[in-house]
Amino acid sequence: MFSAGGALPPEAGYLAGMRELTKRYNVLLIYDEVMVFRLNYGGLQSHFGVKPDITILGKIIGGGFPIGALGGRREIMNQFSPSHSHPVFHSGTFSGNNMSLTAGLVALKCTISPP
């Protein structure tokens, strides 16, 4: 699984230990899946079975075009909604960029079921 960009697998129990610590101290566990996602659609979380609070993804989801994304638990993501009582503002140069989103959709479709 770990061959892109020199990624090294975590030591046994490391991610589970981090999950335990983040719950104990009430802090977020964030996975940067920019490199590992290209090897496995589920990234680290599906391979090791430890789910983060937030996941960050890069241009692989845009078929190589410039884009980034984050996702996470509903109660966290709801804070980005303008209807939230204290919304978190988020914007980006390529937010909702049609070319990047279309390229990503085509790349995923071709990878899942080649034409």
Net shape: flat
The class by helix and strand makeup works out as alpha+beta
Number of strands: 3
The termini sit apart by: 25 Å
Strand content: 5-15%
The overall average pLDDT, rounded, is 83
Helix content: 25-40%
- Taking strands numbered 1, 2, ... along the chain, how are they ordered across the largest sheet? 1-2-3
- Counted by DSSP, the helix tally is 4
Low-confidence stretches: none
What oligomeric state best describes the polypeptide chains here?
single chain
> Largest beta sheet, briefly?
3 strands, mixed
Reading the helices and strands in chain order gives HEHEEHH
Q: Roughly how many Å is the radius of gyration? A: 16 Å
Offer a few descriptive terms.
single chain, 115 residues, alpha+beta, three-stranded mixed β-sheet, flat
Summarize this, please?
Helix content is 31%, strand content 10%. The protein is an alpha+beta fold and 115 residues long.
Explain this structure to me?
Helix 2 links the parallel strand 1 and strand 2 (54-57). The mean pLDDT is 83. This protein has a three-stranded mixed β-sheet with strand order 1-2-3. 31% of the residues lie in helices and 10% in strands. The chain has helices spanning 14-24, 43-48, 74-77, 98-112; strands at 30-32, 54-57, 69-72. It has four helices and three strands, in the order H-E-H-E-E-H-H. The two termini are 25 Å apart. The longest helix is centred in the C-terminal third of the chain and has 15 residues, at 98-112. It has 115 residues and is of the alpha+beta class.
